[in-house]
């Protein structure tokens, strides 16, 4: 069985189990699950852009805000259903990505990262000064128009599954190999005939559409939508932190990063916010310095070593080893020699 088949089967099984257990979870667990899945979708979408194609972005907050505000405004001012609002969030985020990709994809390295950060700052400033969207105070989505409880959990699961599916597809496809070639050596990839700009645009637009859908899920969860919540730059920073801690360029790295950073630090240390932020910063520094590949590749390497040790045959005790009679040497005297 190929790695691709195993990856798709594992993803399908995990989604089926989570979808089935949603009705059995408590309201608190469902709310936590929605947050985890929303962060997973954002971190995995950032991983698709940075880990697989080498475009390090600080603009996730712009697309979270675009998706969140698009879905929220549509629900608040029209009679469309939330599935249509979720789809519009993806479309508007993809359109924004396609528009800003014209100038941004002319930039490389740090300049691209700073350019995406500028887009996030501009979107936040626009929303703070947009009266129809409530300005700095924001507005509230009608409660009856959004999914809640188990239904919201399943919507968040769908968005996270789409992000994971994109990562699996890129990991095991020719498109992903071409993206990796562009990431590793753009000039060499172009020399071999890879359409560099087309591949970069495709990765950027797909990643942004997924982040926009995650923004819609976040808006459904918050109900009260404001620039300080939906357009906050911490969405960009958390995406980077979770993906790097878990392991960029891997399918399951962002999963590990979300669990460690959000659940392990943010949630468990919610009453100690300052300590939580300090630990997040310290963890990021340690990972970058000691394990730049992230914790997931280290965990896989450790598991392989343990499996290799377990598969070795047990050594035979020395007293149970059969001993062969020693062969006579040329210097030994036999009974014939003595006669």
How would you characterize the overall build of this protein?
By secondary structure, the protein is mainly alpha-helical. It has a single domain, classed as Orthogonal Bundle (ABC transporter involved in vitamin B12 uptake, BtuC). Helix 6 runs antiparallel to helix 9. The longest helix is centred in the middle third of the chain and has 27 residues. The radius of gyration is 27 Å and the shape is globular. The relative contact order is 0.15.
Provide the helix percentage.
Answer: over 70%
Q: Quickly count the helices.
A: 15
CATH architecture: Orthogonal Bundle
Low-pLDDT residue intervals, each spanning 5 or more residues: none
Mean pLDDT, as a whole number?
86
The overall strand count is 2
Radius of gyration: 27 Å
End-to-end C-alpha gap: 73 Å
CATH topology: ABC transporter involved in vitamin B12 uptake, BtuC
Instruction: Indicate how many domains the architecture comprises.
Output: 1
Tell me the major beta sheet: 2 strands, antiparallel
Main features:
single chain; 339 residues; mainly alpha; ABC transporter involved in vitamin B12 uptake, BtuC; two-stranded antiparallel sheet
List strands and helices in order, with pairings:
Elements: H1 3-21, H2 27-52, H3 60-77, H4 82-104, H5 110-128, E1 139-140, H6 149-171, H7 174-184, H8 186-191, H9 196-222, E2 224-225, H10 227-230, H11 234-246, H12 253-267, H13 273-290, H14 295-311, H15 335-338
Antiparallel strand pairs: 1-2
Helix pairs in contact: 1-6, 2-6, 2-9, 2-11, 2-12, 3-4, 3-5, 3-9, 3-11, 4-9, 6-9, 7-9, 11-12
């Amino acid at each position: 069985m190929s790695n691709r088949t195993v990856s798709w089967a594992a993803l399908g099984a995990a989604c089926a189990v989570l979808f089935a257990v949603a009705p059995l979870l408590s309201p608190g667990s469902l709310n936590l699950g929605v947050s985890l899945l929303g962060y997973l979708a954002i971190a995995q979408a950032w991983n698709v852009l940075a880990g697989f194609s080498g475009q390090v972005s600080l603009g996730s907050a712009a697309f979270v805000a675009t998706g969140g505000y698009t879905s929220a405004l549509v629900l608040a001012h029209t009679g469309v259903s939330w599935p249509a609002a979720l789809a519009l969030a993806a479309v508007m985020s993809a359109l924004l990505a396609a528009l800003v990709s014209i100038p941004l994809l002319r930039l490389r390295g740090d300049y691209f990262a700073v350019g995406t950060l500028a887009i996030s700052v501009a979107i936040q400033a626009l929303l703070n000064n947009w009266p129809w969207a409530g300005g700095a105070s924001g507005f509230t989505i009608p409660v009856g128009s959004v999914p809640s409880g188990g239904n919201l959990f399943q919507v968040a699961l769908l968005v996270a599954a789409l992000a994971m599916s994109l990562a699996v597809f890129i990991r095991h496809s020719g498109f992903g190999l071409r993206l990796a070639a562009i990431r590793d050596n753009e000039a060499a990839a172009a020399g071999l005939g890879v359409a560099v700009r087309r591949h970069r645009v495709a990765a950027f637009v797909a990643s942004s559409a997924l982040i926009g859908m995650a923004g819609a899920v976040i808006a459904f969860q918050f109900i009260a939508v404001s620039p300080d919540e939906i357009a906050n730059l911490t969405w960009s920073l958390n995406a980077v932190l979770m993906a790097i801690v878990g392991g960029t360029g891997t399918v399951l790295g962002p999963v590990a990063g979300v669990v460690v950073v959000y659940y392990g630090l943010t949630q468990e240390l919610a009453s100690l916010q300052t300590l939580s932020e300090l630990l997040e910063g310290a963890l990021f520094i340690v990972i970058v310095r000691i394990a730049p590949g992230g914790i997931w590749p280290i965990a896989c390497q450790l598991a392989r070593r343990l499996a290799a040790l377990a598969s070795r045959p047990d050594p035979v005790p020395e007293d149970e080893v059969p001993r062969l009679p020693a062969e006579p040497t040329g210097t030994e005297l036999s009974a014939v020699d003595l006669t």
